[in-house]
Amino acid sequence: MFKTITTLSALILLSLSTKAFSEEVHYLIVERLSEPFQLTQDGKSNGGIISDIVDKVFEDSPYTVKHHAFPLNRLYKMVESGEITNWIAYDAKVWNSLSKWGDFVDEPLFPVRHTYLTCSPNAPEQIDSASDINNHYIAVLKNFDYPELDELRGKEQLNLIPVSDYDQGISLTMLNRVNAFVEMDLRVRFKLKTASIEKPCLQFVDISHIIPAYSIYLTTDKNNQSGVNEYAAKRIKQLKQNGTIQKALSRYISVDNPLSTEPKVGLQ
Predict the structure, then answer these.
(1) What is the per-residue pLDDT across 29-87, written as a single tens digit (0 to 9) for each?
(2) To bridge 57 with a disulfide, which of 112, 214, 235, 264 should be the other Cys (CB 3.0-4.6 Å)?
């Protein structure tokens, strides 16, 4: 009898211990707008660079990750209202999209840079200053912020042509109806890779002297008290050292040097 009670007690303690150390973390995914960082299909998570990294961060950990895919506006409303808590998402310090409700994980995931995609036969390897694109017609995505380009447009140094999606921006560039399409380098490469677009004339020109490179981070719910933020920072360092993050990038984009270095200069 005593042995039976002892065994039951041990099982109960094990069950309570497992619950106490298996906290659920809600990973937030934006539907359709965050490729190749996050991919969705039929409203559900379907991989992506950051989604794969998040799964690795919490693999064999005291945390259980649950993926949630939402339209962008609904995601913001749920975070703001507190309808979803103990969440983790991605952000950049130049965006500060979730900084009101979240804390950046100290360790960045990887840097990103923008590209000046062009079919110009005389394109340079990089844009060195604003004078290099003076009076150019540049396609950019609608509803996306490009403060450096907006500043130059305000000075009447260039013209911005809003486009609805990557296909339109790339098409206008290939038809030479604009001088270039400017967007995040890895996003453009992913689009060209997955869409199998014929691209004999397209050239990637570095525009980091105009739009400085910046880092992508994970960010966590400010109200979390379990140390998930610090745990994620430690794991990201390990994943960088063992090559896991580089593999995640290479899985979705074909590029000789996907991780750009931080720029020395900005808008000139």
Answers:
(1) 998 878 999 999 998 999 999 999 999 999 999 999 999 999 989 999 999 999 999 99
(2) 235
Whether the Cβ atoms of residue 160 and residue 140 lie closer than 8 Å to each other: yes
For residues 120 and 205, the answer to whether their CB atoms sit within 8 Å is no
pTM for the predicted model, two decimal places = 0.80
Q: Which of 52-66, 126-140, 244-258 has the lowest mean pLDDT?
A: 244-258
pLDDT at 163 over 90: yes
Domains of the chain: 21-111+215-252 (3.40.190.10), 114-206 (3.40.190.10)
246 token code pair:
């580089």
